[in-house]
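Researcher: Please translate sequence to structure tokens.
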Amino acid sequence: MSQGSSSLPRLGLVGTGDWARRVHAPSAAASEDVRFVSVYGRDQVALGHMRSTYGVATFVDYREFLAEVDIVAFAVPPDVQAGLAILAAASRKHLLLEKPATIDPTAAWDIADTLSETRCFSVVSFTHLLRPSATAWVENARLSGDWLYARSESFARALVDSRNPSFKSLWRREKGALWDTAPHAIAVHCRILGDVVEVTASAGTGRLTSLTLLHVSGTLSNVTVTLEAPAALPGGSIFFGTSGAQELPKCANWESDAKEAHLAALGYLGRAWRGDPSGFAPDACFGAHVTSVIDAAERSIQSGCRERPQTRPGSFVTQANR
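Model: Translation complete:
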């Protein structure tokens, strides 16, 4: 367990909700690359549960919390995450951000810029780019090139199935699958095909949203998602090119794969803290591009036109293309 070694960076968790309890806290406690030392939140009962379960310190004052950690992991809605992440980055903390980094591209780029200024590292929790069962496939697909087209589909029932843990999630009800499930697919498409330069999107029955993405490589891809599917339907990601049709390995269990992805992210951040940020991780700059793509999709739905993602000077080419 990470708590046994004082030579490891101190990890603090922001949030005490369902995802924090089911994924973030167990992953942090299991990590051998960080010490899970504290939790910040507002719910005293939930904080008490974290304290008794994991033996961590708990805080209701965010600045006091930041003073006691080296790495901050976030498990809060994206609109809440934005301001807290900028403060943490300005305090020279490494960050593990939930996806989407924010729902505001300007704020997303501000997080990336602040991390760059403070020379701190970050990972955004794009599960498919971090889970061990998919990373080798993604890198092979990226290096093989010669893709003609790709498509990803996710037909979830989270907002119509009362047994689903996300059923009562207010931000998901407001923003839908475009902001919840589409980021995972867009991240894979960007990693393999390059940044997105144009987006065309439309919305249909059951809050089904479909995006057509033009990548800097000239390749077209499509992402179609909903959280209100009328029945359990198959989905997945398939890339078409000179090597035929290649499918991204499916998740055996989303929660288990998310835990493995978080462990991988903590491993990367732990190495970065020790001065060895080896290997690829989708950082805040990459996350800001994904946020900008989704924002462009939202604008395209409203305008009925093609839209371009927001960029920062010099930051359009993200880690996806390095």
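Researcher: Any highlights?
Model: The longest helix spans residues 254-273.
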